[in-house]
Design goal:
Length: 93
């Protein structure tokens, strides 16, 4: 699977986990040069507290476009510290 934004592959892995129609990529599969930590956090009732990244590619920024759960509930252990995308990031095979 590949995550693409602004015509650039920002993550790539054969090991994604799909939950709620989102592909969660291993943290080591993201191209870290495009990611910067965000101050945004949100809480999912069954997964836990999410942290976010903003993505910057070729001078354009996509604020809070990736999220991950550094610590998860027992129900979501399979996606602990994996990264998922939204806000225009396209995930394709």
């Amino acid at each position: 699977m590949k995550a693409i934004w602004n015509n650039e592959v920002i993550a790539e892995s054969d090991d994604t986990i799909v939950i709620e129609n989102n592909h969660y990529f291993p943290h080591e599969a993201i191209k870290k040069e495009y990611f910067k930590s965000s101050d945004l956090h949100s809480t999912c009732p069954w997964k836990g507290k999410a942290s976010y990244y903003s993505i910057e590619v070729n001078g354009k920024e996509n604020t809070d476009a990736a999220w991950y759960y550094p610590e998860v509930s027992e129900l979501a252990k399979s996606i602990e510290n994996r990264v998922a995308f939204w806000r225009g990031v396209v995930v394709v095979e």
